[in-house]
């Protein structure tokens, strides 16, 4: 079993290629269950999907599940991933709000919120196509180095390097929540198909570790080597250590 790798020249090519893969999925199966991600990486992919919606692609029968959400931010907080998704995708296309799912990081009972997320995912029949980014420390969703391969949706502490990286979205590093709810490695690996996106040289090392290194929780993305239908879609810079090999 090995991960497929597709390399495109630029981040713009990456976004249009990823959007076309998602559009094909929706055209073929209009009631697809999509796994969605946040962060800088998918922003332009969502913009291209919004363009495709303007040109006739309908999301009305699609169900979505987002991978993660900060603990302790209200849904409407501008820094929440819920707000991110509303801005970049949910308000741009005809998704039915009752079919968009995010972990509830503002729940009074976070463990119950995690169980509820897994339950909803099972009830929906699982993810047909999962979009992923990768952290420069190799994390996928908020599964940080050291996470368990059999992990399900749970509350996690963010690694210091993740807090530092994500502080660019906040006024200061102190404002970044220290915890999140994240879909687990096992949750992610249960998707039928996975598309991981990465661009830029600061992802090159993690991409190389994930694809060419041993399978180890030191690089959580390396667990994707065990998936039967996973593709890494990379720009030239994110792929530069692979092509040097
Ligand atoms: P980024 O984050 O898209 O903002 O680089 C990716 C990730 O941490 O998974």
Low-confidence stretches: none
Order of helices and strands: EHEHEEHEHEEHEHEHEH
Distance between the termini: 20 Å
Proportion of beta-strand residues: 15-25%
Spatial strand sequence of the major β-sheet: 1-10-9-6-2-3-5
Number of extended strands: 10
* Rounded Rg: 17 Å
Number of helices: 8
> Largest beta sheet, briefly?
7 strands, parallel
The chain-level structural class is alpha/beta
**Cofactors, ions and other ligands in the entry:** 2-phosphoglycolic acid
Which CATH top level class of the domain at 4-68 and 77-102 and 125-146 and 190-243 fits?
Alpha Beta
Overall mean pLDDT stands at 96
Percent of residues in helical segments? 25-40%
Looking at the structure, the CATH topology of the domain at 4-68 and 77-102 and 125-146 and 190-243 is Rossmann fold
User: Architecture of the domain at 4-68 and 77-102 and 125-146 and 190-243, CATH level 2?
Assistant: 3-Layer(aba) Sandwich
Query: What sort of overall outline do the alpha carbons produce when their principal axes are compared?
Result: globular
Plain-language structure description:
The chain contains eight helices and ten strands. The protein is α/β, with parallel strands linked by helices. The two termini are 20 Å apart. The chain is globular. It has a domain at 4-68 and 77-102 and 125-146 and 190-243: Rossmann fold, CATH 3.40.50.1360. Helix 1 crosses helix 2. Helices cover 32% and strands 17% of the residues. The structure holds 2-phosphoglycolic acid (PGA). The site of 2-phosphoglycolic acid has 6 residues, from loops.
